[in-house]
Amino acid sequence: MKKTHHFKTLPEPFEAMWQGQKPFEIRNNDRDYKLGDKFCSQEYDPIRMTFSGREIWGSITYFVGYEKWGLPAGLCVFGCGDLVNIDNVSAQKELKDLEHSAKGEGE
């Protein structure tokens, strides 16, 4: 059965994927990732210990476990496809702006 995995990603590699420069992930395979699974990568700031609100949704289009290619035990590499960038921060701001303008129109 296919799963949807949610995971934190540090700002630098997250931005590279957001910009389309990094179509892969190198991760601990602690979630039993499989070809065809879906994922949600959430940008996480470890200094502030907060999520930015930006997410990348996609699917695993290629998978290599640690037993191949000499990867250290427990690591995997997977290709990322069908990527959709979601900026919840901008969406929340737009919603607040809409709420303000709706209140202003009613007065």
Short recap of the structure:
The chain has 107 residues and is of the alpha+beta class. It has helices at 11-18, 88-106, and strands at 4-9, 24-28, 38-45, 50-65, 75-87. The chain has a five-stranded mixed β-sheet with strand order 1-3-4-5-2.
Describe the structure.
This protein is of the alpha+beta class and 107 residues long. The protein has a single domain, classed as Hypothetical protein (Archaeosine Trna-guanine Transglycosylase, Chain: A, domain 4). The protein is 25% helix and 45% strand. The chain has helices at 11-18, 88-106, and strands at residues 4-9, 24-28, 38-45, 50-65, 75-87. Strands 1-3-4-5-2 form a 5-stranded mixed sheet. A hairpin with a 4-residue loop joins β3 (38-45) and β4 (50-65). The model has no long low-confidence stretch (mean pLDDT 89).
